[in-house]
Each structure stands twice: as structure tokens, then as C-alpha cells.
Amino acid sequence: MVDVDYEGSRRELQTDAGVLRYHEVGDGPPLLLLHGSGPGVTGWQNYRGVVGDLGERFRCLILEFPGFGVSDPGEGHPMMMAGASIGRFLDGLGLDRVDMVGNSMGGIVAVNAAIAAPQRVRRLVTVGGPGKALFSHGPSEGIKLLCEFTDNPTREGLVRWLHSMVYDPAVVTEEMLEERWRLATDPTTLAIAKRMYSTEAFAATMAAAKNSKVPPYWSRLDKVQAPTLLTWGRDDRVSPLDMAMLPMRDIPRAELHVLPDCGHWTMIEAREAWLSAALAFLTRPESADRLPG
């Protein structure tokens, strides 16, 4: 395992939209790791538990999206800013083609990147996130609790949301709670979160999507050319498992790995099993990715 050090791995990249901050761990082919959304989230929190193992085979780049309290905040919707930051980041580092791992929102951002610029994505691993609920009712329990916290940020509300993210409540430690609380209640970070997850903003986004003439990203999943590994917790209460059915069927070279007794954070709650599946997929010969004929 490669040594993982927060301060020693911190990097900055100046762009025309402000400073993007990231962590760099390991050496090898570039692997871009994209974090999810939610109170107090950072890329470092999402991936610090697995980046040492991934760094044995890859140059791991954990990007901190604008608006989440680490990179410069930005002026737009967090999801839109995240998507726009991908091209700036890769161009700034002189990277033409990378593997990507995306957790939740980061998975959706990665899928959209693979649709818009397929030449830049070699292989893709998602952790929950992309797809569309086919059988379960929306919004999910986790999204409802996320909106409740954003409207009224209390410590109790944060605990309720964190518990919805996992199968085993013991995963939510006091240290995790304190770390999340500090960043989630930062005035600037909270104000940006309200652009996405206040009840009013979320309802407006859903209404705009319903009335939009632009096809939703999940209707264009067949455009993803990169071999894709979808990893999902069987007990995910944020992105229910039935969301995986559409990308599994529509992404031409998609595979689905479901982890039992696991919630939304498969790379945290099922660390060893997730690492085994992700590394096997990312390191296998490219000849295994070819479609028949």
C-alpha cells in the first residue's frame, strides 16, 4: 500500500474559473476520482480509505469539486460546476485520457464526461449514482433527508442523513460526524449546497428537468463507449438498486457488481470487496473489453 498523507498529497491547479484543489497519490496510469455530494463531503473523505491501495497501480488524482469547501467556490449550480471542472482539470494537467471512478454525483459527472468526450475516458467505475429509478419511489429516503438537513442544518439532521448512507450505523463514527459538521455548516459551503439541495431548489430542478426539451443524461447512456463497472450497495437508500438496471442494460460494455449488507458508500462500507472488484476491472487486459464482432 502506498503511504497516504493529507498534507503531502495536496495540490493546486489555477484555472480560468478559480483554483481547483486535489490530492495526488501513487504512480502509474492516471486515475481520476470524483466525489459525491451531501453535507460536508470532500473527495479526500470519500477516497482516503482506498487511495493507498489504488495508488500501488495508478497515479490517483482526487479532485475537489468547486462549491464543496475545498476548491474555490464558484458561482453556479454544484452539479454544473463539477462537470465543467473535469475538462479544465485534465487540460491543466496535460492529460488526454484517464480512467475515472465516480461516487454518487461523481458517478453521474463521470458518465456525462464519457458521453460528451468519449476519447478522454478509458474505463469507468461508478459507486451508486447514475441511472433512473424504475420501481422505487422518488425522491429516495437519503435525498429527502439531505434536503431536510440543507433546509435546517442541525446535528441531529446530519446524523439521520449519515445513517441513511450506510447499512451499518456503526460506520458513522463521532469523528466522521464532527468532520462533516464543520464543513457542512461553513456559511459559504452551506449557501452553495442550498443551490442544489434546499427543498425549493431541488423541486425547481426536478420541474425544470420534467419540462426541458434537452434529453436527460440517462436516455443517452448508450453513448458511453468506455467499459464501465457499476458498483452498488444492495441496501442503498440514496440510489436504490433498481437505478442500476438502466445503465447496466444501456451502456454497451457495462457490468454490475452488487455488494450485500452495504449502503451508498460501497468503497467505505465494503472496502475490501469493492477494491477487489475495482482493481480487477481497471487492471485487466484491454483485449477483454472488446465487443464481439
Your description of this structure?
The termini are far apart. Helix content is 41%, strand content 17%. The chain has a domain at 6-135 and 216-283: Rossmann fold (3-Layer(aba) Sandwich), CATH 3.40.50.1820. Helix 5 (105-116) links the parallel strand 5 (98-103) and strand 6 (121-127). Helix 4 (78-92) crosses helix 5 (105-116), helix 6 (141-151) runs antiparallel to helix 7 and helix 6 (141-151) crosses helix 9 (187-197). It is globular. With 293 residues, it is α/β, with parallel strands linked by helices. The protein has helices spanning 6-9, 43-47, 51-54, 78-92, 105-116, 141-151, 155-164, 174-184, 187-197, 199-211, 245-250, 266-269, 271-283, and strands at residues 10-15, 18-25, 30-34, 59-63, 98-103, 121-127, 228-233, 254-259. GO terms for molecular function: hydrolase activity.
Q: What tags apply to this protein structure?
A:
293 residues; alpha/beta; Rossmann fold; 8-stranded mixed β-sheet; 13 helices; 8 strands; AB_hydrolase_1; hydrolase
How do the helices and strands line up, and which of them pair or pack?
Elements: H1 6-9, E1 10-15, E2 18-25, E3 30-34, H2 43-47, H3 51-54, E4 59-63, H4 78-92, E5 98-103, H5 105-116, E6 121-127, H6 141-151, H7 155-164, H8 174-184, H9 187-197, H10 199-211, E7 228-233, H11 245-250, E8 254-259, H12 266-269, H13 271-283
Parallel strand pairs: 3-4, 3-5, 5-6, 6-7, 7-8
Antiparallel strand pairs: 1-2, 2-4
Helix pairs in contact: 4-5, 6-7, 6-9, 9-10
Pfam families: Abhydrolase_1
Organism: Tomitella fengzijianii
Domain AB hydrolase-1: 29-269
